[in-house]
Please model this.
Amino acid sequence: MQAEIARRTGLSPATVTNLVRELVDEGVIGSEDRVHQGRKAKWISPRAGAECVLGIDVGRSHVRIALVDLGFNVLGELQQRLARNTPSADILALVGEMLEELLATTGVERASIVRAGAGIPGPIDQKRHRIGTPSLLPEWAGIDLPAAFEAATGVPTSVDNDSNLGALGEYAWPPALDVDSLFRVRLTTGIGGGLVINGKPWRGVDGTAAEIGHHSIDESGALCRCGNRGCVEAIASVPGFLEVLGRAVGHEVDPDEWVQLAQQGNTTAGRLLEDLGRHVGVAVANIVNLVNPSRILIGGPISAVGDILLAPLRAEVRQRAVPAATRGIRIELGRWGDLAEVYGAAIMAMQAQDSVTYSIPKW
Ligand SMILES: [Zn+2]
Model:
């Protein structure tokens, strides 16, 4: 509502009227008269299709892209599977091809894409625009990430860790969550985390905050690819669990099939998920003790299994975290499932373009 903008920004109603008129003339927003709480009000909204952003979510085994207009309407979305260890050059080429296809099927003009946001599955040093810990994501090591994605898409691109973007998507995609702090765990072949504190992201100085997969839960545990011992990812290794399950059922299994098998009552699949839930719960309890957030969200393809995983995870948090911190906390599935990352990527692009609604905090 126009009056609401004046109230929130402190600008005079006349100034807001002039600004709105300018933006309507430029075709960026639409304005209409509506009745709100019994009174006539000017209702404004981003004009569908006028400008849009491209969200890109590169996981370890998939690429998803979405075109989103500034009113948060998804104009089109595409997903493709990735073979493990696909070189980054091939992933970037695939992103370019998928964008061509999406433009063709949606009829969106390339020129109307103002910016892109991309997530990749590792912590990023935002000052150097590169992977901060090359051993965690060797295929992207040394690459100037925004420049590489810009070359692939033809639009300026912001890049962040996919786990941060998943937390942003869950937090800010409308209707934005009314919480001041949340932690989101992402369970896929890797285990990631994203943290929002006081409505703002918490990446840490070098972009590695909330890397829950590399929290040590056993000081003398197995060696991890990050160089530490006893990390969640080393003890509750999803690729390791999939291998055990694959041997039990006689063929290779991916996370989606793991979920299906557990839901069909396969005992091995169910027990392995309980194990995963318990180990992740230990690390989540540590986060709860450190941050005392109001919401824990569980996302990623493996979370689709629901209570088989969530029940042991919740039990572990209740047992290990300070009781006061667990009293009001809600531990539940995320709202947007596998779309949270691509939604977060689109929101990051909108914020970088500075053409965002007031309801979204700066990421
Ligand atoms: Zn580790």
Observations:
- The first strand starts at residue 29 and ends at 36.
